[in-house]
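Section 3.1: Structural characterization of target chains.
Under the original work plan, the team committed to producing a structural model for every single-chain target entering the pipeline before any wet-lab resources were allocated. The record below documents one such target. The sequence was received from the expression subgroup and is listed exactly as submitted; it comprises 394 residues.
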Amino acid sequence: MKYHDHLLTACAEALTSIFFDNRHADKCIEFYFRNNKKWGSRDRRFFAETVYDCVRWWRLYWFMIDKEPNRETIELIGPSIWHRGLPLLTHSASSIEKFSRLFKEAPPAIKQSVPDWLYDQIKEELGEAGLAYLPYLNQVNKLVIRVNTMKVQKSELKNEMHKAGYPSMDLEGCPDGLIFPERLNVFATPFFKQGMFEVQDGSSQQVADYLDIKPSMRVIDACAGAGGKSLHIADKLKNGGKVVALDIHDWKLQQLKLRARRNSYSNIEMKTIEGSKTIKRMQKSADRLLLDVPCSGLGVLRRNPDSKWKLNPQSMSDLRSLQAQILQDYTGMLKPGGRMVYSTCSILPSENEHQVKKFLEDHPNFKLLKQRTIYPVLDGYDGFFMALLEKAKQ
């Protein structure tokens, strides 16, 4: 299949931005899409898949061609040999034999294309079982949506999308979820523009159910970001009750505002956290509290493969400190007798069970009702953790 040199050059430029200018892969790809309006769907798909595959297999790729990645080598060899993350050097039998031998000889961390320190940490915390999840995290994630049940029934949307050329299947364990056998541009459909669904992974969809929400409740989503879970909570409340979406970044809440408008949810209130006073003003005001805290994102590497290259031992330590601080500072917003979910998109116990255990040791007025780690699998689920805790009534 023939691709023009300008696409391969754009791939090399994008990878330079991601690895040497510290840009996020998804934002980088969006930038190139915005600035190349003439690209057709085939070009856009090739560009995005090539960049993501190169990011995903970055370490293995450079090991196989025995070169050190830098701006000069990308400019020199990127346009001529990158194709979906694999070197197009020669199709000779000797070349294939060479690469097969090199792969067999590669250390385990290189085979899985992760940093040594991360490989060691996963092994230390989860043992061989944890290492067995690495191949799943290097797979391309499936497209999953959550149906907006305020606007349409899942069966109806599934049928209408199938007629329009977007076949899907019910997602096991997610009553409002549909999974697609191939990646499609569902954002261009009238169904999305009319707010009939949101793209949301199966693991993330299970958080709202874990909260055990009743229609009249006041629910605070204290680390809302762009609000995927806030929207799901609003749906569970059937546009009754109230969702208070908090975040330290106002621009993320502005994205949520647009999404809420498209979904026709009128029960979401957005507040930017401007300091400790914002939290203190809402003491004992929430029937339910969601703390979907910042984390390593190791459970969602399929969607954000560049995050494994941006992490380091110090940033991991900083994240664990931040998680503990959020648990300490934000839980006062929960009413006596209320329930909260602590969640991450990580599979590491140091970010999950250990944080919950330490919190409970320091806060005897809380008890753990249940907790669950969802390990990454191929069909529709990212790695995720959630723990349901209840605050004493007195």
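Residues 56 and 305 are 5 Å apart (CA to CA).
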